[in-house]
Amino acid sequence: MSPRTINAILISALDDVVTVIAELTEGDSAIFFKNGEITQVPVVGTIPQYHKLAIRDIKKTEPLKKYGEIIGQATRDISQGSHVHEHNMASPD
After folding, report:
1. What is the mean pLDDT of the chain?
2. Per-residue pLDDT for 93 more than 90?
3. Vertex 31 angle, CA 28 and 36, to 5°
């Protein structure tokens, strides 16, 4: 994959996560548009295709936003570039 290939989608500038469109592994970067500019976030671990990746550090109990809306809450600290899924977030009731 080219170093400047878009491989993640940010739905809203308010979001805390992007959706990766190809599996990413340690050493890759999630590359996406934010506010009309290309942004890169180094990947921590492995992010499966179509899963969420944190684009900022998120503290335990903080709400998580996607689509500009709260989609859940962090159940532990989540580092920028990490996989966001049921192992570290809880969906709202």
Report:
1. 94
2. no
3. 165
- The C-alpha angle 22, 53, 60, rounded to 5 degrees, equals 160
Amino acid at 12: S
Alpha-carbon distance of 7 to 87, in angstroms, equals 23
The DSSP secondary-structure symbol of 57 reads -
Whole-number Å distance between alpha carbons of 75 and 87: 8
**Confidence grade of residue 3 (pLDDT, cut at 50, 70, 90):** low
Bridge partner list, 41: 30
pTM of the model: 0.92
Residues 14, 4: Cα–Cα separation, whole Å: 23
Beta strand extents in 14-87 (DSSP E only): 17-20, 24-25, 29-34, 37-42, 46-47, 52-54, 63-66, 69-74, 83-84
